[in-house]
Amino acid sequence: MLTLREISALAIALLADVIQIVLFPIFAEGVLSPFDDVLDGVVFIVLWGLLGWHFVLLPTAATELIPGADLAPTWMAAVLFIIWRKRKAAQNASNIISRST
């Protein structure tokens, strides 16, 4: 079951990716390009606050700064990866604890 923080992170990542993909012509290099960079910065900080620090956030933010690369749903992929890794780590920890008892 997903936590409220994970659901919120997924929703924010989805919204950011949809905005960047659907409104790409507006965010293309030009007048509104700084808005795209600000959006990525805000999403980075919000996801960090919701999910905690994870190494995947840095390359994702860097990828978003490459023109055209933000046409891929990188924020959503990063959030799904972080949730998957946290669940896997929790499962491994529980397996270790159950074996030691």
Molecular structure report:
Helices cover 76% and strands 0% of the residues. By secondary structure, it is mostly helical. The protein has one domain (4-100). Helix 1 (4-22) runs antiparallel to helix 3 and helix 1 (4-22) runs antiparallel to helix 5. The longest helix is centred in the last third of the chain and has 27 residues, at 74-100. The radius of gyration is 16 Å and the shape is elongated. The mean pLDDT is 89.
- Approximately what portion of the residues adopt beta-strand conformation? under 5%
State the helicity in percent bands. over 70%
Mean residue pLDDT: 89
Task: Please report the total strand number as a whole number.
Answer: 0
Classify the secondary structure makeup into a structural class.
mainly alpha
- Low-pLDDT parts are none
Main sheet: strands, sense, barrel: none
Q: What gyration radius follows from the Cα positions, in whole Å?
A: 16 Å
The sequence of SSEs as H and E is: HHHHH
Distance between the termini: 26 Å
**How many domains, as an integer?**
1
Anisotropy-based shape = elongated
Q: How many helices?
A: 5
